[in-house]
UniProtKB/TrEMBL annotation:
The keyword Cell membrane does not apply. It comes from Enterococcus ratti. Coiled coil: none annotated. This is Uncharacterized protein. SUPFAM superfamilies: RelE-like. The lineage of its organism: Bacteria, Bacillati, Bacillota, Bacilli, Lactobacillales.
Amino acid sequence: MDKYQATLIVRWLYQHIDGVDDPRKFGKGLTANCSEQWRYRIGKYRVLVEIEDDQMVVIAIQVGHRRNVYD
């Protein structure tokens, strides 16, 4: 991932996730063995996160191109 794309992803996360009451409204829940994780779609990239409700923390687990982020 180039520096420009990384900047876009960080900017998107700050604009949409930082300070929001329900971070799930912008994402989609994963299924099967990743059922505790959520996905944010940012262009051709995906950010896989875990959301801790008791502390309102969103932890980025993996960031990558949609083709290989789920490997």
